[in-house]
């Protein structure tokens, strides 16, 4: 029995995560928050999300209810080749249509296996089943095709479970569909601003009225260990007008936050830094004490960084700072390892030893032990040296919440300090 | 109107995450998977989880439905002091009881503020409201008291939203309640086994019948980049019998997987390794090429590691391998940087330079570029040296899915290689 054709409210969405492994708590449903953020950019309100077991009658009941409460229903999971992958069958039953073998979809599944030089097991034929009237959605990252299907007066999208398969399908199938559905008189434009070395509350204080909500502009913020992602979405009658409004708002953030802004399009601070280093041929290194290896590991995440990175230093003990970086013992004894003179000497020593152009040093008290009244847990000194001169030396007192948080904050701060100096020379 | 007193199936649970911020996708509902894992240990099956908006009528409807479908209903979120915190009111309405100011609960809220030398705003009085017949649950990490309430023939627990407040309340209130509810003739015992350097499919192949499900023993597995966590839960008539069965099953895993087992209680491989190094006073170092800093950063995450860690080496270029680790140029030229002789020379050079007892080296092709037919992306060589001798040298071909995955696999492999050698000397 198909659902009654009641008209659900426009631009409302109902999300499902499907699979016993989610209910067992093996992992969290991370697809639903990701989809919610995408949908928000297109003006959709998510009315509810549910996680259901691999149980066809339960799925059918819930899909029908959802199709009466929202105009768009999205599921993730349950599209695999095994008998407990029931999403396709539940969708067909909820829509009241038969399920049929689709030769074109089967060719996709076969092509996926051919690419990886394997032969698909017979069970994979299940993945080529398609409810009548449905559209198969190409999966570029796995064998499970997605599905779009009318469900009463709502539209149902069934997406795979693994986020690495969901994201390309959303980019290639869902977002173009959302764009095509948007009313002519309403155009949205979304821009981003990425900032570093700020806490969320510092950001909110400084942003002030830029964060106010208006009907035609929405600003969202997510924050993690000093890295912030700002999403600006504007609404207007033409694409040009929406774009101009978004650009104007983005420019206000850039003006307000200056050097805290590290990118307008790339969320990963290390990728931004690494690409600028590579593009300019600036050779880089890092000398780390409390973050031991974290700054190096972030730089190492950038493809092609070997063109500008020769070596990095994890100098934990005072002896190592002296032996490898040439920090004078007298300086260590007089000021202590967590001090401006030692941070400066570490950065200069790293430059000299590696022959790089640009070096950052990090020395601090990560905790949980080792803090003193003068040098509490969370105090970290940084220096950045450029071709034989220290251009930046500063300390921060990070919240001493945990050793990992102090180290992550300090590592992000060091990467951003490198970028700030790089952009100033 | 209270729900009809239909009897829901025993030991079933229905979970809710409450709050607009979850539906907007600001963050994922991480409480539900956490609660699911706790509940599983007590034999509960989670039948469904939902995320609902801050909307009292919607909450009331869903709570009533849940109380007919599960014997235990858990909510997280919506217990704060502001007007959009509606969980207490929704619980009272769903149960058909009035909501009343509770002086004892108010004293808890006051005490929380006194501890932090602040005065509670008047709005906090809302947090001392309690549905009649309900039990307030003490929050040791925040002002929001929890709530336990009969809901039809089900039991409702309302918990706060932030995980750091949820976890102590679960430990202090939910788990003792679950223990008290367990039938006398049924005792559960849970043990863990943590393994490294195995993929999930290798594990499943080798474990074979150890993974079969039985009514009285449940084995769950989670896997990430070569680290696996196995949870064994057994059921028997006495605590001793359940414990013996769990220990016997755990011993079978230990026997089957041998050196792959790195711990029976600590999930973090780096903590296990670091603590054994510290306890034995074994001085450690790492020489890293493709993982640049990742092994060092993992060691640096261990509190107190400075007692046995002097310095680490990020030697990316051939020149750095020669300059800092003394790898002969001729060896690099003849065998290439990704080779057994270079891995061996790096480990020995790191020992010599640092004066440590134990060193690991990592050199591989992280990708996405730089692979060749002979040395494809994902090929990584490792060596571990102990006091002047190489005791382990091996290569792995990791799946070339992404640069980050190759590096994470390689870093985990290197940490486990250190532990395997440490336990053999």
Description:
Chain A is an alpha/beta fold. Chain A folds into three domains: 12-181, MoaB/Mog-like domain (Molybdenum Cofactor Biosythetic Enzyme, Chain A, 3-Layer(aba) Sandwich), CATH 3.40.980.10; 187-263, 2-Layer Sandwich (Alpha-Beta Plaits); 269-424, Maf protein, CATH 3.90.950.20. The first copy, chain A, has helices at residues 20-23, 31-41, 56-69, 87-95, 103-115, 163-181, 200-207, 239-257, 269-280, 294-300, 318-325, 329-335, 340-354, 403-424; strands at residues 12-18, 45-52, 72-76, 99-101, 129-131, 135-137, 146-151, 154-159, 187-196, 217-224, 227-236, 261-263, 284-288, 311-315, 358-364, 379-386, 389-397. Chain A starts with 11 loop residues before the first strand and ends with a helix. Strand 14 (311-315) of chain A pairs antiparallel with strand 14 of chain B, so a sheet runs across the interface.
Quick tags:
Alpha-Beta Plaits, 17 strands, 425 residues, Molybdenum Cofactor Biosythetic Enzyme, Chain A, elongated, 3 domains, Maf protein, alpha/beta, six-stranded mixed β-sheet, homodimer, 40% helix
